[in-house]
Design goal:
about 280 residues; alpha+beta; BirA Bifunctional Protein, domain 2; SH3 type barrels; 7-stranded mixed β-sheet; 5-stranded antiparallel β-sheet; globular
Length: about 280
């Protein structure tokens, strides 16, 4: 599928404004500027795909760079006034579920809290390998209430950035023990444009409606997240800003917090942190 056919497939959806660039510094930076452009429909999202980015960022401002044309490098600029404030922390979960459930992925991925997609047990030693990472940023005017302000003309907006290792046949030595690609997992190249259409369609038709439906709790999304989780039920090490927590991940809460029962059998709820999966032998 070409970029033009992907754009045609999304015509009429909230992701119809699909844009492409061969090379950029960061799609996150670009999309924030694009959202400030005059919009005929303020609720319309802006989506940017890049073949290569030189200043991509992951969580904690970690650098992210992939070989040109090998990955899905995408940022979704999404106006979110229709999503209740208390549910906006679940937008990364919604995007993760859209990727995990995409037909092109063939069930190869699971979700590692907080924002990674991994291939469980793909390492030679049985460890997980990272295939994708998600980054989210909320933008609204300083000092405004949570339901007001935001990007001029569009209100509150969330940037959802994702990088997926798609058609990467080999990784450099420093990443070989950490990363994996869809091509290597599935055994054949994956159509990147088709994958983008599948992800955005699922986000549009399945997961965003769950978050926007204020008459019902988001239980369907939370249950799907639990089923797709690579973290729940496992011993974990969570690196916090000022401490390291060891325990077992037991659940996720309605706002996306990870529930960990620590070594003293105390239940902890974590909204941020770097999670590391530990094998039972450890």
């Amino acid at each position: 599928m070409t970029f033009d056919s992907a754009k045609a497939a999304l015509a009429g959806s909230r992701f119809a404004d699909l844009r492409y660039t061969a090379r950029t510094g960061s799609t996150m930076v670009d999309v924030l500027a694009m959202l400030a452009e005059p919009a005929a429909e303020p609720s319309q999202a802006v989506v940017l795909l890049a073949d290569h980015q030189t200043a991509g960022r992951g969580r904690l401002d970690r650098a992210w760079e992939a070989p040109p044309g090998a990955s899905v490098l995408m940022t979704v600029g999404l106006p979110v006034l229709s999503v209740p404030v208390e549910r906006r922390t679940l937008l990364t979960s919604a995007l993760a579920l859209a990727v995990v459930g995409a037909p092109s992925v063939e069930g190869a991925l699971r979700i590692k809290w907080p924002n990674d997609l991994v291939a469980p047990g793909a390492g030679a030693d049985g460890s997980d390998r990272k295939v994708a990472g998600i980054l989210a940023e909320l933008h609204r005017l300083p000092g405004e209430p949570a339901d007001h302000g935001g990007v001029p003309g569009r209100g509150d907006c969330v940037l959802l950035g994702i990088g997926i290792n798609v058609n990467v046949p080999e990784f450099p030595e420093d990443l070989a023990s950490l990363a994996e690609s869809l091509q290597r997992l599935i055994g054949h190249p994956v159509d990147r444009a088709q994958l983008v259409v599948e992800v955005l369609t699922a986000l549009e038709q399945t997961w965003l409606p769950v978050l926007e439906d204020t008459a019902r709790p988001p239980d369907v999304l939370l249950d799907a997240y639990r089923s797709a989780s690579a973290t729940l039920g496992r011993p974990v090490r969570v690196e916090l800003a000022d401490a390291v927590l060891f325990g077992r991940a037991t659940d996720v809460t309605a706002n996306g917090e990870l529930v960990v029962v620590d070594d003293q059998r105390v239940e902890r709820r974590l909204s941020v942190g770097d999670g590391v999966h530990l094998r039972p032998a450890q």
